[in-house]
């Protein structure tokens, strides 16, 4: 019991902040980068990766679209998708984001 009291007395009020900064730094240095982590598989002229590698933009026109795949297999993940449709009647556009597993 004396040991846990010693730890409590010696801990700094800044310890949680230090832990948060350390975790944030690790996430920032090891974050996703589309230049490094994905390959554009088709429609190269309809795909654009931002200079910092944090944004992948796929464009759809009357003739074609684009596709990409990750270079690694993942057990879990998160996707954020923002789709912008042209104004007017878009009944012929399929607005679907497909995730498939290829062994």
TrEMBL record:
Pfam families: Glyco_hydro_16. InterPro entries: Beta-glucanase-like, Beta-glucanase/XTH, ConA-like_dom_sf. One of its GO terms (biological process) is carbohydrate metabolic process. Residues 1-103 form the GH16 domain. Keywords: Glycosidase, Hydrolase. One of its GO terms (molecular function) is hydrolase activity, hydrolyzing O-glycosyl compounds. Coiled coil: none annotated. PROSITE patterns: GH16_2. PANTHER family: XYLOGLUCAN ENDOTRANSGLUCOSYLASE/HYDROLASE PROTEIN 8-RELATED. This is GH16 domain-containing protein. The lineage of its organism: Eukaryota, Viridiplantae, Streptophyta, Embryophyta, Tracheophyta.
